[in-house]
């Protein structure tokens, strides 16, 4: 790679300029962005499934409308993100193929089952809460299209976060059965939510290049600490118990968590979680069922092209 071009590129990042699609960039910067943005898109796309499963069983029309809007937002986030990756030269077909054949990753968190209605609220509060912490950081990233997508996605997810919190607070202040449902959902979603933010910094091989080039502005552990500091007091105030006997506050006011079971994390990432097979089957079925739509759109586009000739 041309050292002068690399130096000019790094100087632009140091000045806080955004890198735009046609600009020169190192091959590794492009590769890292395609990896990360496409996996982020896949996460939104698979992430529709755990909550989507509850649309037909929402307890009221109001809750059903909110949930449909949320799941639809997640589909939209996937679309923005696939488009952002396309600006780097990845094609939709390649990315979809990588997901559907299991070559690409998507977030570990979506391989856990949503067993009760309280899980829908807990996903909004914890999973969207963790996603917002990570994505607020990424809104400042050096690649223009990704950074701008994050601004819009974060504002929509702030609504998701609030609706989740509101739902859990209603249950936490509700009947003993509702309180037990909220606690049970917290017991099952707490640790996966911490894992979702990625391995500890010493086990995060991508952080080096990502932080050097201003893609990630904070490390996995820093973002996890922010997430914990925000959520522990609020969950405790709701009367819920965080399932971590070692949790305590240090002299700086940071909430320190007990050991994370990384063997569980890697098992889930490698396909051995409770719902990996179910999620991949659902996405493959949806893709196969959509074949006629893609064919019809292609036929329409080629006819429009002929008409323009
Ligand atoms: N799951 O070197 P690092 C959402 C992989 S969106 C699976 O630390 P990096 C919205 C990682 O890919 C949630 N794999 O990696 C929503 C790498 O493998 P690779 C998704 C994981 O990139 C809410 C290896 O481990 N958000 O939730 C995970 O520096 C509610 C080593 O890791 C994004 O994707 C994981 N949790 O840091 C939707 C945000 N963590 O690729 C519906 C963008 C790590 O080399 C309902 N991504 N791995 O084969 C990022 O910020 C980063 O990629 C991290 C990981 C922080 C996820």
UniProtKB/TrEMBL annotation:
Domain of life assignment: Bacteria
Signal peptide: none
A Pfam family annotated for this UniProt entry: PaaA_PaaC
GO molecular function: phenylacetyl-CoA 1,2-epoxidase activity
Gene3D superfamilies referenced in this protein's UniProt entry, alphabetically: 1.20.1260.10
A GO cellular component annotation in the UniProt record: cytosol
InterPro entries in UniProt: Aromatic_CoA_ox/epox, Ferritin-like, Ferritin-like_SF, PaaA, PaaA_PaaC
Gene Ontology biological process terms from the UniProt entry: phenylacetate catabolic process
NCBIfam families the UniProt entry points to: PA_CoA_Oxy1 (TIGR02156)
Protein name (database record): Ring-1,2-phenylacetyl-CoA epoxidase subunit PaaA
Species assigned in the record: Deinococcus yavapaiensis KR-236
């Amino acid at each position: 790679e041309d050292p002068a071009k690399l130096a000019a590129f790094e100087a632009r990042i140091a000045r806080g300029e955004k890198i735009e699609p046609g600009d020169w960039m190192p091959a590794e910067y492009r590769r890292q962005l395609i990896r990360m943005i496409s996996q982020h898109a896949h996460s939104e796309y698979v992430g529709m499934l755990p909550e989507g499963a509850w649309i037909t069983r929402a307890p009221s029309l109001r809750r059903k409308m909110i949930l449909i809007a949320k799941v639809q937002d997640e589909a939209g986030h996937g679309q923005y993100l696939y488009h952002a990756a396309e600006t780097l030269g990845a094609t939709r077909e390649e990315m979809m193929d990588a997901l559907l054949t299991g070559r690409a990753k998507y977030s570990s968190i979506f391989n856990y089952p949503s067993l009760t209605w309280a899980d829908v609220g807990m996903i909004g509060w914890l999973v969207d809460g963790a996603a917002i912490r990570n994505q607020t950081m990424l809104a400042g990233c050096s690649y223009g299209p990704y950074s701008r997508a994050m601004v819009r996605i974060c504002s929509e997810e702030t609504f998701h976060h609030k609706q989740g919190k509101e739902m859990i607070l209603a249950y936490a202040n509700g009947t003993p059965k509702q309180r037990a449902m909220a606690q049970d959902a917290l017991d099952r979603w707490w640790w996966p939510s911490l894992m979702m933010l990625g391995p500890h910094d010493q086990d995060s091989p991508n952080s080096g290049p990502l932080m050097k080039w201003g893609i990630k502005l904070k490390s996995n552990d820093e973002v996890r600490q922010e997430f914990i500091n925000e959520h522990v007091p609020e969950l405790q105030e709701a009367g819920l118990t965080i399932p971590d006997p070692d949790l305590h506050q240090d002299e700086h006011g940071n909430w320190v968590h007990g050991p994370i079971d990384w063997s569980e994390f890697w098992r889930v990432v490698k396909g051995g979680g409770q719902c990996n097979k179910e999620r991949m089957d659902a996405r493959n079925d949806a893709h196969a069922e959509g074949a006629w739509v893609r064919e019809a759109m292609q036929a329409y586009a080629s006819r429009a092209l002929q008409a323009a000739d």
